[in-house]
Amino acid sequence: MPDIKHFDPELALERAERLFWQHGAAEASIQDVVAATGLNRSSLYATFGDKQQLYQAALRRYLRHRAQPAFRQLADNGRGLPAVRDFFGGLIAVRCSGEYAGWGCMVVNAHLGTEHHDPEVRALLDDHHRQLRDALHTALDVARRDGELSPHLATGAAAETLALLAYGVNLRSRTGADADSLLRTVTDTLALMRH
Q1: pLDDT level of residue 1 (50, 70, 90 thresholds)
Q2: Rounded to an integer, what distance in angstroms lies between the CA atom of residue 179 and that of residue 194?
Q3: Which of 18, 120, 162, 183 is the most exposed place for a label (fewest CB within 10 A)?
């Protein structure tokens, strides 16, 4: 007879994601996970495995629901530098105001914590970086086509620079940087790339 779950695993995973995002895997105890999800330990372990496996699943959920849609929107936008500016504007808005203000990015938090020592987590972080860089590169290629960029700008290197700027925005927002100063930095960086 199949095991019938009396809870929603996706809702439990979302709650775990929020806990790990805000506090990190090392700081969140299994008791914190139990409290956040409302599940007992045996249900957690039976559904998700141990705490590390639950963290990996939560990180994959974060990437699937939060990071990857933003990357697709940037890559598919077709407006060049305005799309890049909007991407950063949206990122800064989420990081500096509203429900998730001060949480930073779960990916950047994983780079800073002990989580990145796990090979599976490391692979997820590397894949995230590649997707971010590639989406930025696509937008910069559109900007080049539209004559917005300096002819000497290497779009691959510029995309890598902007990806690192996104990490910096996430990190600085976690420590309380204000949105206006972050937006000025983005605007000044993009101005350096213009024709």
Answers
A1: very low
A2: 23
A3: 120
